[in-house]
Amino acid sequence: MPEVLSQGEIDALLSALSTGEMDAEELKKEETEKKVKVYDFKRALRFSKDQIRSITRIYENYARLLTTYFSAQLRTFVQITVASVDQLPYDEFIRSIPKMTILNVFNADPLEGRMVMEVNPNIAFAMLDRMLGGQGNGLNNISSLTEIETTVMERMFIRALQSFEEAWKSVLDLNVELDVLEINPQFMQIVSPNETVAVVSLSTKIGESTGMINFCMPHVTLEPIIPKLSAHYWLSTQKKIREPQEKEELEKRVRKTKLPVIAELGHSTINVQEFTQLTKGDVIRLNESIGDQLCIKVGHKPKFLAQPGTYKGRVAVQVTEKISEEEE
After folding, report:
1. ∠ CA(267), CA(273), CA(275), 5° rounding?
2. Domain covering 261-322 in this structure, CATH number
3. What distance, in Å, lies between the first and last C-alpha atoms of the chain?
4. Where in the chain is the domain with CATH 3.40.1550.10?
5. Angstrom distance (rounded) from CA 104 to CA 178
6. What is the rounded distance in angstroms from the CA atom of residue 203 to the CA atom of residue 83?
7. Rg, the chain, Cα only
């Protein structure tokens, strides 16, 4: 947004021009001169702002899903929100995370290549402590993981990645599979150091422990679905998905609606005097004979004809014919 000058600044500028302190020709010359902007080819921006916004929306949904999942698993207060979405060289991402951390390397078919879910040790061990019955206290430094700790963490993060599939469902159906759980970033070379990656940082709080969960997604891996991350595609897809979902949801609710089903044995007409004289043991003669079929009403509308009888010792009717709309 261009800067707006105050009235005092305008008066001072006009005064400087009139007294010769400033030259109008020099000001015009400065504006026409080309401005040089430094561009770092090692830090190439491969994702547009529109695509970054779409990735942010996906991970905001994923953060809500993770909050629900971890709250149920850990049975404690969990809060996860999207802190930032950046694009940077892979080498810079590796240098930005702790030297010893929890790295979940996973595949997301049909996308080629691997992605990384990095969990800060403080958060990871708070989760592990809760899963093993503790208070949820995190650890700041780790040297190695025992077999039990590795197994518990793998199972926990495998289920967390199932929510990753659900979050990306509006863009692509993914089949996520955990490849390896690593603790040393130096042993994790999924792309070349200068390859641009999208890094999504999720601010995480579990009980009293806080930390970050970072997702690293190489551009070369996301390249086949980059066009689907535009706002136009996103909105049109959301509309197409929403309509069938609304229809399916409405159909489910209608199917669960309860309707009264009435089997009419018959009917008869009496006057008020006969009605007032009815006593216990009196018999009302119906207009239908014993061999006639009964009328089955659904929602007080005749829908079927049925034969009376018993089933497993209880009074029942067997549907023999459907009443058409014309007959109805």
Report:
1. 40
2. 2.30.330.10
3. 71
4. 43-246
5. 7
6. 6
7. 35
Helices (H), the chain: 7-19, 24-32, 49-74, 90-96, 121-131, 147-167, 219-222, 231-255, 272-276
Per-residue CA distances from 31 to 16, 18, 262 (Å):
18, 20, 87
Report the Cα 258 to chain-centroid distance in Å.
32
SS3 content of the chain, % helix, strand, coil (to 5): 40, 25, 35
What is the spatial distance between Cα 312 and Cα 130, in angstroms, rounded to a whole number?
53
HSE-CB at 310 with a 13 A cutoff on CA atoms is 3
306 near 263, Cβ under 8 Å?
Answer: yes
Please, which residues have CB within 8 angstroms of residue 304's CB and are 6 or more apart in sequence?
Answer: 295, 296, 298, 319, 320, 321, 322, 323
Helix (H, G, I), strand (E, B) or coil at 178: strand
Beta bridge partners of 245: none
Q: What CATH number has the domain spanning 43-246? A: 3.40.1550.10
Query: Looking at residue 31, what is its pLDDT?
Result: 56
Q: Which amino acid is at 41?
A: F
Kindly report, residue by residue over 77-131, the tens digit of the pLDDT.
889 999 989 888 888 888 888 888 888 999 988 888 889 999 988 888 888 888 8
Is residue 29 over pLDDT 80? no
Residues 6+ apart with CB under 8 A from 108: 115, 164, 168, 174, 175, 176, 221
Own/partner contacts of 15-21, CB < 8 Å, gap of 24 or more, are none
Q: For residue 205, with 0-12 CB atoms within 10 Å meaning exposed, 13-18 middle and 19 or more buried, which class applies? A: middle
Rounded Cα gap, residues 31 and 38, in angstroms: 19
Domain boundaries for CATH 2.30.330.10 within the chain:
261-322
Whole-number Å distance between alpha carbons of 40 and 21: 39
